[in-house]
Amino acid sequence: MNRKRVIGIGETVLDILFKNDQPQKAVPGGSTFNSIVSLGRAGVPCAMVTEVGGDHVGDMICRYLDENGVSSDYVCRHEHVKSHISLAFLDEHNDAQYVFYKDHASVKLDGAMPQICKEDVVLFGSFFAVNPAIRPAVAGLLREAHQAGAWLYYDVNFRKNHIADLPEVMPHIEENMSLADVVRGSTDDFGYLYGLHDGDAVYERVSRFCDTFILTDGSRPVRVYTPNGCETYPVQKIATVSTVGAGDNFNAGYIYAMLQGLHDQASRVEMAQRWSQDVCRQMGNNISQELRNELRIES
User: Fold this and answer.
1) What single string gives the DSSP state of each residue in 191-255?
2) What is the pLDDT of residue 34?
3) Looking at residue 133, what DSSP letter applies?
4) Helical packing angle, 166-179 and 187-194, nearest 10°
5) Which residues of the chain have pLDDT under 70?
6) What Rg value do the Cα atoms of the chain yield, rounded?
7) pLDDT of residue 167
8) Left if phi > 0, otherwise alpha if psi is -120 to 50, otherwise beta: which for 138?
9) Minimal CB count within 10 Å: which of 23, 51, 207, 211?
10) Is 136 helix (H, G, I), strand (E, B) or coil?
11) Model confidence pLDDT, tens digit, residues 272-284
């Protein structure tokens, strides 16, 4: 495998998963965090840029990164601050409804930052990537990466509870798109952002900033838009245990395929769906030992 480094920029939480209102598992998570840990498990050199409290949960998170082959050198630790918590309640379809316990205004990104070079891959997204409280630091890092010629993947992942913030953060979202080599989002994301649900209409907006766009829509086909047109890829129906981390591992699988030298979109999407489906078959946020073994055999 190409030994490029993947740098994740995003929030970190402790995910507590519930089924029938009973806790099932507690594991460090966060959208970009889930992707980076899976890539680290697959043997990809990775580092995570994030922030946590100076508490026991923060200790757990840093230890979890290290145990999974992800550098924690760029995790900002803040004493006298509590790490973020997320409760994920799985419904009868094993889809999650989230309740977050965190204060976005208290987020600080004031620690050591990586020196990004042309060979690096940068994965970023969610509200962390547009949060006004840390936007100067995040934007500076992204602009540095773009100028250095790194490959940037932006997962919009915009949640309904931040609609009130849109007037302030929309310029940041669109700048992120303009810096990215690939933008991924769901139909829900762009319904919240632009009031659009038609894929072609969404791409018309996104293509003003980035010409490669992946649109996902739950169990419906994945659409990949490029200047050459739109390709559609069906989603295999599987029995799920939990859909927590499904989209995050789609991102990770896509990046893994790119690092493997797979240039065609069909191969990248196939790998992305393979990683996403693997996570859905278990109660956890990251790829399984079984998939790790398969990847090692293949490589």
Assistant:
1) HHHHS---HHHHHHHHTTT-S-EEEEETTEEEEEEETTEEEEEPPPP---S--TTHHHHHHHHHH
2) 97
3) T
4) 130
5) 1-3, 104-105
6) 18
7) 96
8) alpha
9) 23
10) helix
11) 999 999 999 998 8
Q: Classify residue 73 by burial, with Cβ atoms within 10 Å: 0-12, 13-18, 19+.
A: middle
Cα separation, 207 vs 210, in Å, equals 5
Place of tokens 């762009």: 190
Entry pTM: 0.95
CA torsion through residues 116, 121, 125, 128, sign: negative
CB–CB of 246/227 below 8 Å? Answer: no
Please give the angle made by the CA atoms of 49, 6 and 205, to the nearest 5 degrees.
85
**Contact status, residue 52 vs residue 75, Cβ threshold 8 Å:** yes
Backbone angles phi, psi at 86, to 5 degrees: -130, 130
> Phi, psi (5° rounding) for residue 245?
85, 5
